[in-house]
Amino acid sequence: MAATGQEAAGQKVPVTLKVNGRTYTREVEPRTLLVHFLREELGLTGTHVGCDTSNCGACTVHLNGQAVKSCTVLAVQADGAEVVTIEGLARDGRLHPVQEGFWEEHGLQCGFCTPGMIMAAAHLLEVNPNPTEEEIRRGLEGVLCRCTGYHNIVRAVQYAARKMQERSAAAD
Ligand code: FES
Ligand code: FES
């Protein structure tokens, strides 16, 4: 007999993901969103949920090197993928330059948008290490700040771009 819609929704399927360098396998319902997988299955609550319309960008993570809104991806679609969340951005106890920039330039007020903003900014600087102010604003337009702290957010990203350039010049 064919499964009813409700039974099908209750069936679980295995999903394996590498998150912040660690591999996890969990059984999830096919309808589970990646953001819920991260928050509820893995306890990585730094990735926020700010809307139910795929609008706010608070849920932004890196999926196979791309910045994506994790509420727009099913966990099963991410099976086998590599994910980086805000918890995985610092390396060896050292903040990522974008995190440092948000700290130094007061790039947050309530902080709700901050994880998504930082993940989007970190990806922006990977693809464009020396963005103009306009490019920063455009690159972050998928993430909304309800506190409207955009000025300092732009300064934070400019700070990070400078730091990253200085560090790569020093490493040459
Ligand atoms: S939670 Fe708002 S875009 Fe994902
Ligand atoms: S700092 Fe409050 S939403 Fe951006």
Automatic annotation (TrEMBL):
<keyword id="KW-0411">Iron-sulfur</keyword>
<protein>
    <submittedName>
        <fullName>(2Fe-2S)-binding domain-containing protein</fullName>
    </submittedName>
</protein>
<dbReference type="GO" id="GO:0051537">
    <property type="term" value="F:2 iron, 2 sulfur cluster binding"/>
</dbReference>
<keyword id="KW-0408">Iron</keyword>
<keyword id="KW-0479">Metal-binding</keyword>
<feature type="domain" description="2Fe-2S ferredoxin-type">
    <location>
        <begin position="13"/>
        <end position="89"/>
    </location>
</feature>
<dbReference type="InterPro" id="IPR001041">
    <property type="entry name" value="2Fe-2S_ferredoxin-type"/>
</dbReference>
<dbReference type="InterPro" id="IPR036010">
    <property type="entry name" value="2Fe-2S_ferredoxin-like_sf"/>
</dbReference>
<dbReference type="GO" id="GO:0016491">
    <property type="term" value="F:oxidoreductase activity"/>
</dbReference>
<dbReference type="InterPro" id="IPR051452">
    <property type="entry name" value="Diverse_Oxidoreductases"/>
</dbReference>
<dbReference type="Pfam" id="PF01799">
    <property type="entry name" value="Fer2_2"/>
</dbReference>
<keyword id="KW-0001">2Fe-2S</keyword>
<dbReference type="GO" id="GO:0046872">
    <property type="term" value="F:metal ion binding"/>
</dbReference>
<comment type="pathway">
    <text>Alkaloid degradation; nicotine degradation.</text>
</comment>
<dbReference type="InterPro" id="IPR012675">
    <property type="entry name" value="Beta-grasp_dom_sf"/>
</dbReference>
<dbReference type="InterPro" id="IPR036884">
    <property type="entry name" value="2Fe-2S-bd_dom_sf"/>
</dbReference>
<dbReference type="InterPro" id="IPR002888">
    <property type="entry name" value="2Fe-2S-bd"/>
</dbReference>
<dbReference type="Pfam" id="PF00111">
    <property type="entry name" value="Fer2"/>
</dbReference>
<keyword id="KW-0560">Oxidoreductase</keyword>
